[in-house]
UniProtKB/TrEMBL annotation, chain A:
Alphabetical list of InterPro entries matching this protein: Znf_put
Boundaries of every Putative zinc-finger domain copy: 4-36
Name recorded for this polypeptide: Putative zinc-finger domain-containing protein
Lineage, top ranks: Bacteria, Bacteria division WOR-3
Organism: candidate division WOR_3 bacterium SM23_42
Chain ranges passing through the membrane: 81-101, 144-162
Record's keyword terms, sorted: Membrane, Transmembrane, Transmembrane helix
Automatic annotation (TrEMBL), chain B:
SUPFAM superfamilies: Sigma2 domain of RNA polymerase sigma factors (SSF88946), Sigma3 and sigma4 domains of RNA polymerase sigma factors (SSF88659)
Similarity annotation: Belongs to the sigma-70 factor family. ECF subfamily.
RNA polymerase sigma-70 region domain segment(s): 28-91
CDD domains given in the database record: Sigma70_r4 (cd06171)
UniProt GO molecular function: DNA binding; sigma factor activity
Name of the protein described by the UniProt record: RNA polymerase subunit sigma-24
Lipid metabolism as UniProt keyword: no
Keyword Transcription attributed: yes
Domain of life the protein comes from: Bacteria
Organism: candidate division WOR_3 bacterium SM23_42
GO process terms (BP): DNA-templated transcription initiation
Length: 173, 181
């Protein structure tokens, strides 16, 4: 068989269009022609390398730029984290304020572990001392509004911290 | 089939302004489109601009996309047209001329650790743009002749002839580069 014919069959194989008979012909010839085997191997290797070519990527802010151009605001992970944080905080406050369960549970744990009671006494002493020191500054010791103010500040804190981190990531990229 | 269903669902979500669906489509295809365009224009910033335009056009005309057709082929057609516009604007002959520098050595070396891959990448860069495009679409992107014909608006016979010729040239160039080392 002529080399030209073999070259045609190799091209057909690379085209994924080779028939069974043609494949048999090709294999038969390759078994006895080292020159064609080398050509066949090089062509197959080139095809394999082409398939495995590196995938390149645009810059990291590419998605954000496309979304901005489309008028879609990108919702960053930290924005979602702020919502989850706020929700958890609110749920925890409502649970502790309106449910008798936490107090009952804590007192049961505290009375069953004497070491915890001693620790609680010490902490209470520290808090009482601090309250004494701070009471001239803070006129009302506790208001139901305080947790909500704290909540608002915490959300703002998480939000701006996330934004600052985002900026840092962009700078590094 | 699962992929087609997934893409169709994503398209529906994009059409209702779902930002996360846009992100998913971008993450699925930006690497493929950017690599294809980059290998055509051989300049990172130009490739990024063309890829950007491709996705903007894609999202803006998504409502007209026929979901019974393969999404990737449609997207590559937009990328191909955007690349041709770029060649026209920059007065470059797409078919024969290719006077740009080969892929930047530093850039390739940064990403290509294997010498074999480097050789094929360099050999590919030496092919005329049209042949390079067909080789990338067939071998790297694994599109069929019919799909390449849709993307490039060329007859299947032309694509086949050019691909066969390009393979032979590529083989010759790789062999030359191997012998030089």
């Amino acid at each position: 068989m002529k080399h030209k014919e073999i070259e045609r069959l190799i091209q057909k194989k690379l085209d994924r269009e080779i028939g069974l008979d043609e494949k048999r012909k090709l294999d038969k010839h390759l078994a006895q022609c080292p020159e064609c085997v080398l050509y066949y191997q090089e062509m197959m290797q080139a095809s394999k390398s082409l398939r495995e070519l590196t995938e390149f990527y645009p810059q990291t802010d590419f998605n954000a730029r496309v979304l901005a151009k489309l008028g879609l605001r990108r919702r960053f992970a930290w924005t979602k984290a702020a919502y989850v944080f706020a929700g958890s905080w609110l749920a925890a406050i409502l649970f502790f304020v309106y449910s008798p369960l936490p107090a009952q549970f804590l007192s049961r744990v505290a009375t069953s572990v004497p070491a915890l009671m001693r620790l609680y006494d010490k902490v209470e002493l520290v808090i009482a001392s601090l309250t004494q020191v701070l009471s001239p500054v803070i006129k009302s010791s506790f208001s139901t509004l305080n947790p909500f103010i704290g909540l608002a500040f915490s959300i703002m804190f998480v939000y701006f911290l996330g934004k600052a981190l985002q900026k840092e990531v962009k700078c590094k990229a | 089939m699962k992929d087609t269903r997934q893409i169709t669902q994503l398209i529906q979500r994009v059409l209702s302004n779902d930002e996360s669906a846009c992100q998913k489509i971008l993450n699925l295809y930006k690497g493929r489109i950017f690599s294809y365009v980059y290998r055509m224009v051989k300049n990172y910033h130009d490739a990024e601009d063309i890829t950007f335009d491709t996705f903007i056009k894609c999202f803006n005309s998504l409502a007209t996309f026929d979901t019974s057709r393969p999404f990737a082929t449609w997207l590559f057609t937009i990328a191909h047209n955007a690349t041709m516009d770029f060649f026209r604007k920059n007065k470059q002959e797409y078919e024969y001329l290719d006077d740009r520098q080969a892929v930047g050595d530093d850039f390739v070396q940064e990403y290509e650790k294997k010498k074999k891959m480097e050789r094929i990448e360099r050999a590919l860069a030496e092919l005329p743009p049209m042949d390079r495009e067909i080789v990338v679409l067939f071998h790297k992107e694994e599109h069929s002749y019919q799909e390449i014909s849709t993307i490039t608006n060329l007859p299947v016979t032309t694509i086949k002839t050019r691909l066969h010729r390009a393979r032979k040239k590529l083989h010759m160039l790789v062999r030359e580069k191997s012998e030089k080392r």
